[in-house]
Amino acid sequence: MLRLLGRANSINVRKVLWTCHEIGLDYQREDWGRGFRPVTDPEFLALNPFAQVPALVDGDTALSESNTICRYLAAKHGRHDLLPQEAALRAQVEKWMDWQLSELNGSWMYAFHALSRNSPDHQDPARIAESVAAWKKQMALLESQLGERWILGETFTLADIVLGVSVQRWLLTPFDKPALPKTEAYFERLRQRPAYRAHGGDGVA
């Protein structure tokens, strides 16, 4: 059975839990990270030297990085709807996964910790404003690319899982936001999926 190490309220753990549910995988989750066993513990570092949740153990394979874990699980279990085999289609999915991890996550990091977590290390008004502006810019880009169904058309993919948890974080972080009607409709479609209802973390940013 898969071992998944990471607290269930982590945005990156929720991606993996959601993916496991979509595929129909059994797993054993262990609480690690903020409020639980520390990721600096040698047992955890032996599996994930980056000291961040999640870590996945599948037999002799140990993996870190949430988007990589999602890709691994979809590929291993032949879920070519979630991660296509054909190179050009797969690249389209991975493009959005990479954008979510770099550009989108990079934009909200400071503002989220300031406004949702009330972190004492993230209270510079200028940096909060800069982060909010960058976040709005990236979300406007997502809004411009969404269609009537999923980010890549009629087929739900891993890209929608990783974007889904990021959209949820956008909606829950308290600040004045522009109207993004396509994004809000997209999120409502995501919320109808049983795997989202089980692991999307409504109410947990």
Automatic annotation (TrEMBL):
Domain GST C-terminal intervals: 86-205
InterPro entries, per database record: Glutathione-S-Trfase_C-like, Glutathione-S-Trfase_C_sf, Glutathione_S-Trfase, Glutathione_S-Trfase_N, Thioredoxin-like_sf
Family annotation (CDD domains): GST_C_2, GST_N_2
Any Pfam family the entry gives: GST_N_2
Gene3D superfamilies the record matches: 1.20.1050.10, Glutaredoxin
Top-rank taxon, per record: Bacteria
Limits of the GST N-terminal domain: 1-81
Listed PROSITE patterns: GST_CTER, GST_NTER
PANTHER family: DISULFIDE-BOND OXIDOREDUCTASE YFCG, GLUTATHIONE S-TRANSFERASE-RELATED
Protein name: Glutathione S-transferase
Source species taxonomy: Bacteria, Pseudomonadati, Pseudomonadota, Betaproteobacteria, Neisseriales
